[in-house]
Amino acid sequence: MSNTVTLTDNRNGKSYEFPILDGTKGPSVIDISSLYKDTGMFTFDRGYTSTAMCRSAITYIDGEKGELMHRGYDIAWLAKNKMYLDLVYLLFYKHLPSQDEFVSFKKDLKERSYLNEKMLKLFDCFPDKAHPMAVLQACVATMSAYYKRDMNFDDMHDYMELAKRLVAKIPTFIAFHYRHTRGFPTIYPDLDRGFTENFLYMLRAFPHNKVELRPIEAKAFDTVLMLHADHEQNASTTTVRTVGSTHAHPYSCISAGIGALWGHAHGGANEGVIRQLEMIGSVDRVDEFIKRAKDHNDPFRLMGFGHRVYKNFDPRAKVLKGLRDQLINEIGIDSNLIKVATRIEEIALNDEYFISRNLYPNVDFHSGLILKALGIPNEMFAAIFVMGRVPGWLSQWMELKAQDTIKIVRPRQLYVGPTCPPEA
Ligand code: SDX
């Protein structure tokens, strides 16, 4: 039995064979690279729901089983036993760090957490009400002007230098912008604090008040970053790979990924969840909005519900739900938001419309409430998603760059336009 599929064109009875490629886990793929040459036709796959765009050894998702693993480690095990920087190291170096490797990696990041002081002028260019994602996307793109030598680097050492620099500086960009818009004194990175604690410190501290964080706050934030670290070929990762396939500057690739993640159907959903819970406002209005979410004539969708891949539970949502409840019990939050969120979950998880469409709470449904409990403003949630996801984007980009040959991403189309000039 040959490992192929046969396609028959019933218009003329012609048949074509295409090889089946097997991975180490999950669905096999049909290699249709020669389809156009053999048949003169393209495939059509809106949203690429049935299309694999690359080989990857980084993250595996099983949407039916609700499985997510990074380089063979299950996400629930990682969230329970490791810290965010362990996972960043695993994504970059393909193995979990020893104690010494962890200490050295953490030191590398600390040493890169300051910004070129000239870049601080960027924050003066934006109105105070500018969305943090607009500022962050511009800051990362601007890094390509400050770190030009990366334009032509050609070895993994330079990739790692670039990757560590970006992971280290993104929290500083976000924190500095937050303080700048409020007229607060800039709080520089405290190199004696951990990666996660340092970000919350830069947000909250004042020269007279160095603030002490509760362990549950640092753990909650560290876990949110970990659960956002990488997620296979989602829209923003596909964007990073697409821009990377043109050999654009790596910081341009990541800046493009930030733009893609900003959309409310993707990384902007966590902000959308909180805004929706605040808009619904009370438990007795939930039914009205569930009805709207089910109405095809109403563009309203339940933020934080549904997923392109997970047609069962999102394993990240499971981890976050437990953490959300623990954090809120310890530090509290606007209980009305929790009541509204709980009511939405109760109804949606038992309503035929959501069940038949496999619409379950995704990572964003709970992450927004955790960030809210940590006192992070709604408009910064997507930027926090970027902070978590940037190591994933970089590991996927490095995997692309390590290929023997890089084919530029250039899909085709089904043309449905005019075939001749319109009547004069
Ligand atoms: C992330 O890809 C990733 O991995 C992304 C991510 C990552 O880590 O990178 O996991 C992060 O982006 C999570 C998703 C965050 N987005 C939201 O929470 C926004 C709300 N969700 C929807 O916009 C939607 O569910 C998507 C975009 C997440 C998935 O969309 P699909 O797979 O294209 O599904 P679809 O639009 O084809 O919907 C299928 C059906 C439709 O109804 P029918 O036409 O079949 O009758 O389900 C309905 C949709 O109308 N539907 C919803 C809904 N999501 C889908 N109805 C109400 N509320 C919703 N949220």
TrEMBL record:
CDD domains: EcCS_like. One of its GO terms (cellular component) is cytoplasm. Keywords: Acyltransferase, Transferase, Tricarboxylic acid cycle. Pathway: Carbohydrate metabolism; tricarboxylic acid cycle; isocitrate from oxaloacetate: step 1/2. The active site is at residues 307, 364. Pfam families: Citrate_synt. It catalyses: oxaloacetate + acetyl-CoA + H2O = citrate + CoA + H(+). GO terms for molecular function: citrate synthase activity. InterPro entries: Citrate_synth-like_lrg_a-sub, Citrate_synth-like_sm_a-sub, Citrate_synthase, Citrate_synthase_AS, Citrate_synthase_bac-typ, Citrate_synthase_sf, Citrate_synthase_typ-I. It comes from the Bacteria. PANTHER family: CITRATE SYNTHASE. NCBIfam families: cit_synth_I, PRK05614.1. This is Citrate synthase. It comes from Campylobacter iguaniorum.
